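A favour between colleagues. Tell me how you read the following sequence-structure pair.

===
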Amino acid sequence: MTTQCLKMEGHIHGRKIILVDTPGWWKSDQLCDSPERLKVELLKSTTFCPPGPHVFLLVIEVDIAFTEKHRKAAESHMQLIGDDIWNHTLVVFTKLESLTDKTIQQYVEHEGENLNKLIQKCGNRYVGFGSDLDTEGSHVKELFGQIEKLVAENSGRYFNVDATKLTDLEMKLKNVEEKATAREHKVLKKRRKLEEIKDAELRLVLLGGYQSGKSKVAHSFLNIKYQSDQMTTQCVKMEGHIHGRKIILVDTPGWWKSDQLCDSPERLKVELIKSTNFCPPGPHVFLLVIEVDIAFTEKHRKAAESHMQLIGDDIWNHTIVVFTKLESLTDKTIHQYVEHEGENLNKLIQKCGNRYVGFGSDLDTEGSHVKELFGQIEKLVAENSGRYFYVDATKLTDLEMKLKNVEEKATAREHKVLEKRRKLEEIKDAVSGEVKNTGLLVNKHQLKTALEREWGRREVVDRFRIQYKQKLLDDYVSGKEINAALFVNKHQLKDALEREWNRQEAVNSSRMQKQRDDYTETSSCGDEEGIKMSLSRVERWLRHQSSDYGSVSSYEEIYKPEEDSD
């Protein structure tokens, strides 16, 4: 089968013949339906016999009906070479044995309009050629005669190749060769890479919602004993081997299935980003685990997308969806489940490149699920040419800063709590007599004295406040007004109270002295004993009047028990 132009040479009747065979087009396909390779070969055919061909031989077999599609296919492909091609074309009919008793002229007359239109474009030049029937070489002789006749009609002029088309062709061929070379190098590089990664370790990260079955998948995949009461609260790194290949697998805490990223705690976000650090320089594949025993809603899709997107935009090119809890499907296949579950699940799977697999450790008695998942992982790694997920340096830096701040705050809080506990222990020990040297209290006796002094001071101040409030009330009732707002601080208040006390004391003393003088002058009949009793009553009255006033500097003395006046 001719797939590219082929040049042949020979002699007929002493004349040198150069003949170029070309690849054929599909008989019912127009030029726009033909591959680019065929178009290039058709244009290139004219360069095999420079400066240009004298004749084009358009070969048509007679054993099938020549339809409009056939005519348009021939015209469009011939026209590609050049508009002048019809002046140099001779139609050659083949497979003449199918005509039986018809001549080639009768065939042309009876075949119909489409064949006649094409022959007319070729100047009504045609000839039959059947090598199996040409025992005497008459067909070759007739064809050679038709060729010489056409060359003579064109005065020996050959077909002029369009220079622009040839230039475009050369550029096209050059680009094709360069691209082909680049593709070859790329393929070879990819093959070498695949050979390199064939036995290299595989790094995987498990992601998914809370109680989706991630941990069970991890343990089953690596054939590690699984305890159902375990709950993943932080990233866990596991290692194992499958078919002799080392596997590093990182299990992560799950998110609430209907909560988007903004609703998740900061601790979970930190663990998700940190998961990529557990398998440096980065994971090859992320396994997104989804259980099939609950409906997958829009909330579930948005929750998965937002938490996955946190790790990085390129994560979808490295993700395989793993469906768990397959026993709930009963007689459905995993593909039927995906088709029937609805738009939200299909959107998510499309983001993951339509990569998904079912994994049921309880149903996988022969290890087929592990084998299928491992095959999908290897396939994805090969599609990515062994390229692992690139961890965003900015996110990692921000995470490190965040973790550092959290640790510093936690350390400071711990120190604060320990210091507080230490002080409480010291006070407890001081009260019980086992005090250590704090630099302030040496023993329990000093502590007791200080506490008693403080208690006495507060008690005196409280009693003074109560008594002073009563004094203000009494003054208000008696018509006196004291503007407490004028006293700026306790020292001014103290001075004012002392001055008021001294004034009242002076007034009362003066009043008492005047009464005594008046009583002495006017009393002429009282005996000495009566006078003493009267003076005693006055003094008691004065003491009673002045007992509500006292010096603030000596307010502790006010509350001492009064000595008996008698």
About this structure: Residues 483-566 form one domain.
